[in-house]
Amino acid sequence: MTVWRQSGLVWLGALIAAGMALLAQVLLARHFDAALFGAISYAYAIAILVSTFGFQGIGEVAIRHGGRLDAMQCLRTAVVLFATATIGAVVWILAVGSPDSEPVLLTLFFPFAIIQIGMIAGMIAFQIERHTIGIALWPAGFQGARLAVVIAIVSLGGIAILVPIGWTIALIPMAIFGLRRLKRAGKWSTGARDASPPSVTRSAFPFSTTRVLEFAEIQMPIVLALPLLGDAETGRIAASLAIIQGFLLLPIAIFQRLLRPRFHEWAREDPDRLRRIALIGTSSMLAIGAGLGLLTRPFSSDLLAGLFGSDFAPASSFLDSVLLVLPIWFASIAINSTLVSHRLADLRLGTQVIAVGILIVTPLVMSSALGSNGIIWGMIGCQGFLLVSGVTLLLFGQTKD
Fold first, then answer.
1. Do the domain assignments include residue 238?
2. Which residues neighbour 33 within 8 Å (Cβ) at sequence distance 6 or greater?
3. Over the Cα atoms of the chain, what is R_g?
4. Sign of the alpha-carbon torsion through 155, 157, 160, 162
5. 78-120 pLDDT, tens per residue?
6. How many domains does the chain have?
7. Nearest-CA neighbor of 3 among 231, 228, 255?
8. Is the pTM of this model over 0.90?
9. What whole-number distance in Å separates Cα of residue 375 and Cα of residue 130?
10. 20 to 30 A Cα–Cα from 329, which one of 220, 235, 296, 387?
């Protein structure tokens, strides 16, 4: 199967997953009010950030080493990273407060965060095996399980706390399958990749940090909105970002899922090819993002009101602004996904810390009276810096391991 056909298949799977994710968001927003929807989105965002830091970096190391890692080292690393992320989340919640409408949601999303280890393991297994169909359909399975729970809750008139409980229970079979699949996938390769790295924790930490920072680029506006703007405005921002996430699945599916194993391979064996593909991909994503943003902006108000309800229409100006950032966002995802050599991964960690710092500090410095404009400017600064720094590292950094 050619790369173009593989990309098309993965993008199709991403579209299906995005459609189901958006439908779940729409149903939740219409079933609950904007404030409660904002509280759910806030708790979900924190759970995803915690699980990403806890487990995603180990997955990246597993890809690099063909799944041949010491199980106990991986378990210890997962515990350390997950505990660190959980402590950080607790500190944040204590500092800014929990959603007034449903504080128990934060606690109930903790098991959901833990179960993500199996979801991440399944995707990593398919990436190790280069199983295109698995890469394409695994996110759809995840979103399908979430959607089924939401449909059941809405149909039965359920309360908000059933959302994290239902999602956790529904995902347990997939999580078990994902862990078992990763265990089998580790036998796919022999040779130089057989040896575990000297320290799984040392190897995983830069990847965990960079991946959580990547997720923070989309989730952090929701996390920031609640203490700055309140539950209802957080819900409206979450609705806008749900639409944006559907667009972002294009570069994510291709560069962070399908081509990720090849980037690791080219970093070792053919850095010139890696650099060439990265520049072509970044240019393509810049153009595609610009086209999608311009085509969607005239319909942003109708899109929000039609999907989520009239209560969400005031967020149309926020959605308009984010759509202007879309081409930069597409390009920054593409370029930074290719920076996988040990040296560039460490440098990328530094640039992403700065970028997310820009995202966080900008709305905090700007007056909350400006509404969501501070978050918008933070997103512009964050993505612009990531794009410029990513291109600089690719052109002048050491792409070969």
1. yes
2. 232, 235, 311
3. 20
4. negative
5. 999 999 999 999 998 888 765 554 678 888 999 999 999 999 9
6. 1
7. 255
8. no
9. 38
10. 235
Which ranges of 230-270 would DSSP assign to H, the alpha helix?
231-251, 260-269
Q: What is the pLDDT of residues 91-101, one digit of tens each?
A: 988 887 655 54
Distance CA 355, CA 333 (A): 13
User: 305: which 2 tokens?
Assistant: 């009101």
The residue whose two tokens read 């439908």 is: 23
CA distance 149 to 112: 13
Instruction: Please tell me the distance from the alpha carbon of residue 313 to that of residue 309, in angstroms, as a whole number.
Output: 7
Burial of 365 (0-12, 13-18, 19+ CB in 10 A): exposed
Q: Find tokens 């699980």 and name the residue.
A: 51
Domain interval for residue 68? 3-396
Q: Is residue 161 part of a domain?
A: yes
Q: How far apart are CA 343 and CA 353, in angstroms?
A: 16
Q: What is the CB neighbour count within 10 angstroms for residue 290? A: 17
Report if residue 401 sits inside a domain: no
Residue 131: inside a domain: yes
Listed residue (357, 319, 350, 321) closest to 336, CA to CA = 350
